[in-house]
Amino acid sequence: MSADKIKIGFIPLVDAAIPVITADLGFAAQEGLEIELVREVSWSNIRDRLIFGHFEAAHMLAPVAVASSLGLGAIKAPLAAPIALGLNGNAITLSPRLHDELFERLEPSANPADPYATGRAFAHLVRDRRARGDEPPVLGMTFPFSTHNYQLRLWLDQAGLDPDVDLRLAVSPPPFMVDALASGHVEGFCVGAPWNSLAVELGLGRILHLGVDLVRRCPEKVLAMRTGLLLERPELGAALIRACEKAAQWLSEPENREETAERLASSDRLDVPAEIIRRTLDGRLPIGDGRGERQADDYIMFDETRPDPRHARWLFEQMKRWGQANGSAAEAAETVYRPDLYDAALGRTPPSLTDDPLGLFTSARG
Amino acid sequence: MPDRPLKIALVEESPVRAEILEEGLRAVPEAQVVRIAEHANLLARIYALDPDVILIGLENPSRDVLEQMFQVSRIVRRPVGMFVDQTDRASIEAAVDAGVSAYVVDGLRKERVKSILDMTISRFNAFAKLRAELEQAKSQLEERKVVDRAKGILMRSKGIGEEQAYSLLRKVAMNEKKKIAEIAQSVITAAELLR
Description:
heterodimer; A: about 375 residues; alpha/beta; D-Maltodextrin-Binding Protein, domain 2; 2 domains; five-stranded mixed beta sheet; about 15% strand; B: about 200 residues; Rossmann fold; Arc Repressor Mutant, subunit A; membrane (chain A); transport (chain A); cell membrane (chain A); NrtA/CpmA_ABC-bd_dom (chain A)
């Protein structure tokens, strides 16, 4: 029997590792699939080309899958997330100048990994700039419907700042984020791996927070498919879930990190040096300018693949909180995540769920 | 009642494709086309222009920047969306297939949107065809260069004429079921190794 040929669109990011490894290491072939990976330049393209059938599946921001299904910001098209492509992987990076400005205002005894403390210092900074009549900071994020947008807003909001009034958030696709910092278009950003580490390596930025400082278990990318295709060809969805799950298990073995970094580094994937990708896989990230490193074993996690509908609900709440959605579509949002398809494909019984699916600001407690 | 002048923002880096599109869109009555070629300050320029329609190629990473516009409603004077309404799905799909996306202000008459979209799609397809032809011409030229070099190598090393060298390449290509250019490339590679 010849293999089912499918196309998967992806954006150059470390969390595209599951589809990449699925395609590269025979996990797809074992399931009778032949995957062609298509590198894309924007999340808008990923969304539209999935919706209109150019791709069978896509590496997609979880909130984009939810927003498309609800008809927010684009054509309404029901998408499903039968498997999550891991959790976490983001960081907030500031230009050395903005980082210095913030640290000058940090309380002497404060833990710099505590987002409450850095938030207070940042609010102080924003007020000082306003008092001087200076421009407010501009921070980059990857898409209106992204966890990067919501993580920044979470941090700013608890500090008493209104992200739409007190400063500006500007969109830039991940691979262009470092350029945006270099050109002064933004003074900092929240983006996924490896782009924070590339900014650090080039001396353009310093990492202020790992994503886990703000959200311990943050939904990130999902493998999105059209609901219609899943209904028409349930065996295709099941095969992809199984292939991706095997890749996720393989990716979770520390001895496979070197090969993962090498494969992601190639010019048709991320086109970033392997050693920079490697640090993000190890969860050992130099902050920049010789200021030591941050360590977090859960900085990026590949084996957290079971879609948790409570993540979709949280994402919908963020959309409501920030005026992107209104009404009570929380249940419709939840149904985008399909743990039922995941469990069925893998022959597993539903696990008992953790009490707290997210873990907001847990780093401040430690 | 005549339509009021319609402003079309064309976010396009390639001057050739921009020219092809502008020429086509001039046929749309009362349309004014403004080209934005660079990424920097894209949103500010769009706000200043206040266009009715924005056209942008799918390969342009600034698409995501544009999408932010539909979120910050406090800044935008008129609501802009990618889709006039859900019934235009077929037009939008055709546009995405052609490699372009269109953002249209709310309330613009559907026939006008359709005529602009149809024109854009046909011009995008025309440009893609042009580019494919150019690529083909370029690769044919490259192939001819490779074959000429291989012929030269064969003529020198075997002391034969040009015609004989060519028929030798052709014979091997036929026997091995490969293109003449591929055989020619192997001759060049082998000659470089043996040098």
